[in-house]
Specification:
Bound molecules: ligand BES, manganese (II) ion, zinc ion
Strand order of the largest sheet: 7-8-10-9-13-17-14-15
Structural class: alpha/beta
Helix content: 25-40%
Radius of gyration: 24 Å
Number of strands: 19
Strand content: 15-25%
Length: 493
Amino acid sequence: MPLQIQLSSSEPTGAACDYLAVCVHAGVLDRQKPVSTLNRALAGALFEQAKRADFQAKPEQTLEMSTAGRIKAKTVLLVGVGSSDKVDGVVMRAVAAIAARAANAGSAKVLGFCPPERPDLRALGEGLELGAYRFVKYLTGDRRPKTKLGKVVLLVAGKPRVSDRRALDIGQRIGEAVNMARDAVNEPPNALYPASLAALARQVARQHRLRIRVLERPAILRAGMKLLYAVGQGSAHEPRFIHLSYVPKRSRGKLAFVGKGLTFDSGGLSIKPAPGMGEMKADMGGAAAVLGLMGAVGVVRPPVEVHGLIGSAENMPDGAAYRPGDVFGSLSGKTVEIINTDAEGRLVLADVLSYASRLKPDVVLDAATLTGAMVVALGKTCAGYYATDDALAQRLETAAREAGESFWRMPLLEELTEQLKSDVADLKHTGERYAGAITAALFLREFVAKVPWIHCDIAGTAFTEKARSIHPKGGTAHALLTFLRFVENTAKR
Ligand code: BES
Ligand code: MN
Ligand code: ZN
């Protein structure tokens, strides 16, 4: 259920809510009307606290305080929006998310939200939904939260226009698509496996009027996706290939998005160590981002043809599992020698990238929780990306900046390609330990057949331990909003 958003022109101090969040610009607090009014209502306690806590209204900086019964809301939250006069969409989205998350954490049911002047309402709607997100499906009894943020009173001066409502609404529906993707990441691997991921994709297709084609195990083999088949052969849960498409009547471009959908990665016979293995339920973070993207595209309905392609499997050790030393063909025709069964993601992606290339899109973009090396390189807040040319890299940079997601370009170092030479097959699928994220990308490149291509390694960002900005704890759907911007910017080209 989306949040109910009510537009109200009442004073912040009189707003009917139990939690009040006010956006604050950097600079003298006394000169900002909603803040100074609020300060007076709280008998000067607000400014005093702000001073004591050194609150400077930097973007996303917060200060929470009790109102001690002086106004309707029990708690007030100041959220910084920085020093620029016009607050951009990125900051707007983030502060709205922070406010909604804080309200939920404070057991509030109704959030009063005082935005900056002329807010980007789509970003605001997105942010509120993103911030209100929690994954509580499996909590019972005392562990189940007793309250849930259900309503936001948006304090805006003047009469709202129809276009304002529409922007808010689109934003909320995009937020819901992102939250659906997060849910998929957070679902435990006994509940979310390739067949149930395909069922979820069918639901998304139905809800957003998209086309869908799902290949089950025998069809995957018949289609020639031997690598996807091999990775899935050790699991009781059979693999799936999922193709969603959005084909508008008038189209100004064609994009294909590919997601790694390992619903669980035990490593297979090259089994992973026990600590942290459970986090490998999030090894379908790329697939979730692509699925959520297709939902969001179904909301925005831009004049661009968009394909969402997912290779989904469970990587398990078993008598039927694929082994180090095996050699397989692939959809591309190239043969691959298996070195380490824990490098399964690039095998699944190889076949899906070949399929994507055959659609002849203008660009192929993929998102994958591909390598631990990427986590070592950039940590848990920023994803690495690779692009086949500089102009394309610029387009990703722009999309990421506008989406408020963090990406850093990585190099496709030609001198490392020799590490992928095999004695018995066309390629082996892993290189040496060092630069492991780059050799993974170079392996993928073998399967994109000259189509301009962007690869995003989201291993560090798909799942986090700590909530930050628009991202909650757990599944984040990182890359989704960047991909959405990429699609929308393609429509404007
Ligand atoms: N799914 C993992 C990568 C990963 C690691 C994702 C940490 C999220 C957090 C991937 O399938 C994997 O196991 N990669 C191996 C490749 C290696 C065997 C060449 C890795 O990075 O260790
Ligand atoms: Mn693996
Ligand atoms: Zn994996």
